[in-house]
TrEMBL record:
Name of this protein: ATP synthase complex subunit 8
GO cellular component: mitochondrial membrane; proton-transporting ATP synthase complex
Annotated Pfam families: ATP-synt_8
UniProt subcellular location: Mitochondrion membrane
Length: 52
């Protein structure tokens, strides 16, 4: 069974690393979060009365 030379392993490592980085960047920038509108929802706070 033939064995791979170390330069081939290094080339594969770099190729998969670049593919992983491109995939992660594409997934990061393809997600668009929805910004909440301040007019639709108002912040409602209930007073917390602690009775110790």
């Amino acid at each position: 069974m033939p064995q791979m030379a170390p330069i081939s392993w290094l080339g594969l490592f770099f190729a998969f690393s670049v593919i992983l980085l491109i995939f992660n960047c594409a997934n990061y920038y393809s997600f668009l979060p929805q910004t909440p509108d301040s007019q639709e929802k108002s912040i409602f706070q209930t007073p917390m009365n602690w009775k110790w």
